[in-house]
Amino acid sequence: MLGLAQFLMVLDTSVMNVSISQLVDDFDTDVTAIQSVITLYTLVMAAFMITGGKLGDLWGRRRAFVVGMAVYGVGTSLTAVAPTLWALVLGWSVIEGLGAVLVLPSLAALVGANYTGKARATAYGVIGGVAGAGIAVGPLLGGWVTTYLTWRLVFAGEAVLVVVILLLTSWIRDVPARRTRLDGVGAALSAAGMALVVLGVLQSSTWGWLRPRDTPVEIFGFAPTLFVVAGGAALLACFLAWIRHREAAGRQPLVEPVLLAAPPLRAGLSMLFVQNLVLLGVFFAIPLYVQVVLGLDAFETGLRLLPASVGMVVAAAAGSVLGRLAGPRRIVQLAVATVVAAVLWLVSTVRPSLDEVSFSLAMALFGIGMGLLASQLGYVVQGSVREQERSEVGGLQYTAQNLGSSLGTALVGAVLIAALSGTFTDRITADPRISDAVEQQATVRISAGITFVSTSDLRAALDRTAVPPAEVDAIVDGYAEAQLRSLRAALLAAAVFAAAGFLATRRLPRGTPSPVE
């Protein structure tokens, strides 16, 4: 039952990723708007997850789990009938996200309370595998429903599953509430800091990093992006200073500073951040390639992602056994190397036509690497603290995951749009078939902002203008090449982020994790 709840929490994002084209059509919007909706969902969870963990301590973890599932059910019901994009944002990104911030930290603590010894390691491996499978199975399930029925049925089905889970919660052994107080200032500082960092990265493709494009305001002649990110970083620094101040004053902070100082825990959280950054980044870029560039429908997209699902499930199941034999550190290092190799392989498969065999093998390898990570990291994080700290650490665990998910979609999307804009401009400038007048108009439009659309949509838009047919062909050819180059750049960025994870693996435990005093 806990695994089913975990599956629901991660299913939504993968369903949304594979349904991007249909969502764009249904809500008469563009890819960038849907990217923002996806990012906001994980951002809400990242911003309030620590607070959700603290509320689990105040209310008792089973009660927090039940309240969170009920809120989540309201959100998914609203999403199923959302008439406008703003209703989708409210139901999915906000209400479901707020429900998840109560469910996930409590879920992590309840797993630890209901299992002991080797069974606990296996349980965390299964939960990690279910989370990975939810992200990977979502495209197949969502793709089929979106193509042959409607994506709304996925959320209607989730509402039914929420009722089933609520009816079964009495079977879970509870972890009672403990005396604590909610640090409101700390909660506000951490939420605002993370929100500003992700907002700045997300809007970089619209505002520009330095040179202002479509910005609400200019600061000293520059785009506000870096100022927003810096403001978020400053608030996070204030948050760290605040929790140290509260601890020194003998008052309970939102997060115990000593937890953040524990090397195994910090390494585990860092790897969870990297894992989800890469996973959501790749699962944002690949559906764009398969749907927008290759023109496949949502179900066909889900089928192409199925090897990753199989790889995740198999590796997550095997990883818990391998971890006891080789230790978490070696398994995670092997997993990071596998993910980097798989993403680089995916870069080589981004071509005008799909090499089915090579693409499937690369996706399977990617799933294996992610499954191995999932089998170890939750176990390491929860095993590094004492029983009474598991809810608080559960909040940190899912904060790291969802912050990584938010930044994964935002960063990879920003790299994608930046590469698309730069490459398209270069192709237009270098193509002798394009006149100076058309080149100048195109350059101005690109610098004002560009979105990721299909070449057929671009051609249809150009056919409605006075641009000569020969120049339309040249522009479409340049855009098609820019699409492929931008997708390769986005995946290369994901590979770099994954490789950076090696830095955190040195502090992971070699053997069974033990609570840090």
UniProtKB/TrEMBL annotation:
GO terms for molecular function: transmembrane transporter activity. InterPro entries: MFS, MFS_dom, MFS_trans_sf. Gene3D superfamilies: MFS general substrate transporter like domains. SUPFAM superfamilies: MFS general substrate transporter. The chain crosses the membrane at residues 33-52, 64-86, 92-111, 123-145, 151-172, 184-202, 222-243, 269-290, 302-323, 330-347, 359-381, 402-424, 487-505. Pfam families: MFS_1. The keyword Membrane applies. Coiled coil: none annotated. The keyword Membrane applies. It comes from the Bacteria. It is a multi-pass membrane protein. Residues 1-513 form the Major facilitator superfamily (MFS) profile domain. This is Major Facilitator Superfamily protein. Keywords: Membrane, Transmembrane, Transmembrane helix, Transport. It is found in: Cell membrane. One of its GO terms (cellular component) is plasma membrane. Its main location: membrane.
